Amino acid sequence: MRRAVVLLLLALPLTACGGDVTSIDPVAQAASKTKDIGGAHFVLSARVAAEGQTVEYAGPGEIADHGKKFRMRMTMPAAILGMKGLAGKSVTFEAIGADKTFYFRGGPFKQFAGKKWVAMGDDDATFDLGQNDPSTMLEYLRAVSDVEEKGTATVRGVPTTHYEARIQLDKVADKVSPGAARALKQAAARLGTDVLPIEAWVSDDGLVRKLSMNWHPQRGSFVLNVELFGFGDVDIAVPKASETVNFKQLLGGG
Predict the structure, then answer these.
(1) Buried b vs exposed e over 77-102: b needs ≥16 C-beta within 10 Å?
(2) What CA–CA distance (Å, rounded) separates 23 from 34?
(3) Over the chain, what is the mean pLDDT?
(4) Are 220 and 247 in contact (CB under 8 A)?
(5) Phi/psi of residue 179, each to 5°?
(6) Cα torsion for 18, 20, 21, 26, to the nearest 10°?
(7) Taking a C-beta distance cutoff of 8 angstroms, is the pair 5, 128 a contact?
(8) Cβ(215)–Cβ(166) under 8 Å?
(9) How many CB atoms lie within 10 A of CB 123?
């Protein structure tokens, strides 16, 4: 199960924003404006392949505190999470990200923690998460290049302009927050590529309504679709210490 959780954490929905980027680029401007709003709701689907395994997951969620927190209800095949008794079925569990910590409850985590949340740091050496920091698609959008307008489309009933862009990992690290810069450099070295293709759909009010990535570097692949809606203040309650158990302690790591 450990490798499956590593893949899951590698692909968590990239919501914590930071840094200050100024640009006349419409995609970068939209990313900054979207980040400036308190929160939003989203639906996400993704497929991540790495280390000989593939994880597919999907679900709804929320972003809060200007992207510093997220909550999601993930659904994925039980088999990938090591739940052999549920072969052919899917399980749903909750995930919260805040203050450099991930919290999980339900699904495969119920067998370890019951009704409590399982907590693990985003730099937990057990999983080498520092190499896989999910440092936000919105922040990456704020440092895109080679932006090309591809036409128009309607996203959840809202007219948008469709853009394709490229993120040159080694060239944009100095334009984003330190955490995102570190992740970009590590991703380039780990995945054997320094170019990240991305698509964005921006509405007339200058907000990012959809993000899409179909990325196939030499050592894996990452396919992601996210739709954003319901912009405004969103409240996400971070689990209290009394409501959590530490993942390393569950593994006997103290």
Answers:
(1) bbebbebeeeeeebbebbbbbbeebb
(2) 14
(3) 76
(4) no
(5) -65, -45
(6) 70
(7) no
(8) no
(9) 14
Q: Cα–Cα distance between 254 and 252 in angstroms, integer? A: 6
Task: Give one DSSP letter per residue of 106-128, joined into a string.
Answer: SGGGHHHHTTSEEEEETT-TTTT
What residue ranges define each of the domains in the chain, with the CATH number in brackets?
2-250 (2.50.20.20)
Q: Which residue from 16, 62, 71 is spatially nearest to 42, judged by alpha carbons? A: 62
**Secondary structure letter of residue 224 according to DSSP:** E
Residue with tokens 């899951």: 8
What is the spatial distance between Cα 126 and Cα 120, in angstroms, rounded to a whole number?
A: 10
221-234: b (≥16 Cβ within 10 Å) or e: ebbbbbbbeebeeb
pLDDT digits (tens, 9 = 90+) for 226-246: 999 999 989 999 999 999 998
Q: Between 183 and 202, whose confidence is greater?
A: 202
**In whole angstroms, what is the distance from residue 103 CA to residue 96 CA?**
5
